[in-house]
Amino acid sequence: MLENESVESREAEEFIGLADFVAEGGEQLSFSVGDKLLVHDKSSEVWWWAEFQGHFGYVPSSYLNQTPEDLEEDAWQDDEYFENYGTLRLHLEMLADKARTETYRQVILSNSATLRGRIILDVGCGTGVLSLFCATLSQPAAVYAVEASSMAEHTQQLVQQNGGEEIITVFQERVENLTLPAKVDVLLSEWMGNCLLFEFMLESVLLARDRWLKKGGMMWPSSACLTVVPCQAFSDYRKKVEFWDNTYGLNFSYLKSLAQKEFLSKPKFSHHLLPEDCLSSPADVITLDLLTIQVSDIERLRGEFRFTVEKSGMFHGFTAWFSAYFLSLEEHGQTIQLNTGPHSELTHWKQTLFMLDAPVSIEKGDVITGSLCLQRNPVWRRHLSIIFSWNINSTDASKIHTKCFPMWR
Ligand SMILES: NC(=[NH2+])NCCC[C@H]1O[C@@H](n2cnc3c(N)ncnc32)[C@H](O)[C@@H]1O
Question: Which residues form the SH3 domain (predicted)?
Fold first, then answer.
């Protein structure tokens, strides 16, 4: 053991667990999200020799994150985050997204009578477009438009130039640090990131809800869900991996494993999934009730799925997207849905593609069962890991495949 320790104690690096890992077989080492492990040997790409609480074993490198020595930048990366939102680029992208912006406009228009005399909080108002919809399409008593970035200075101007200054008060502040004049009847926000949670602005929305939403108040969106479908992705796989088989007549297939690691280990944002590439009907795997969900719940969200393949083809991976639902303020009013999936009008989020390391040929009637886990990054608080576990036509635990996709750290 002494010899082992002297070898082990050399150049050990500290890493942090991004998600729970359950060892299969004696050689592997189990750990939970947030655990700090000492990695002694990274000679293999995929499996590292690590130590945790005096035990040694192999751990999957994709489940580990380097712990920043001293977190010189804050874990929320707020400076960079709010600097980005202080420029027009992202706001133009969101405002140019008609499906997104028109849905919110429709929600306010169809509830305009009931909004009369109410107080509305717009969390992360950006240019103030939603607050201006409230002030021009209905007669609320007040709208509190909260925006932490420097965009708020322009928002003040836009409110004045669109006749909203009687109703709308703009606050340039993080909503968590804010004292409002009164509690509110409606909390309105467009907080959804890629795969629903990325950026974790939802935490700010929930903290604002807990502090400022009146009992019986309305959350808009009221609920949201993450939807998943097994899919084909021939073009992506051809362009990223098969490309190396024949590169100007040369055989570069030696690079394919590097290509898999570089291009397939992270999710692909802004993927445009075509309906014909869906291998089965999609399923809502995770659903959030925005009135009752707690901040602690969003550390780790998990859902199961079971897909019956409806067409033979190649199983390249999974595609995910989200929907948001807006309950009516009127007793029997109609719920409005913003669906960012392949069967709805394209939005700026598009969909997110998660590719398997190697595609699997699949037949009509095959059954893909498994689970999806959204695990918040224990260090970088706006990031998460998405872990897919699945198997095909079997419930035999030994045949379960698992892949952990960091988004992004
Ligand atoms: N759907 C998204 N993924 N992002 C769109 C909304 C993001 C807007 O909310 C602002 N914002 C984000 N977090 C906060 C916060 N805690 N307090 C105030 N404004 C915020 C941010 O500056 C930006 O203008």
Answer: 10-69
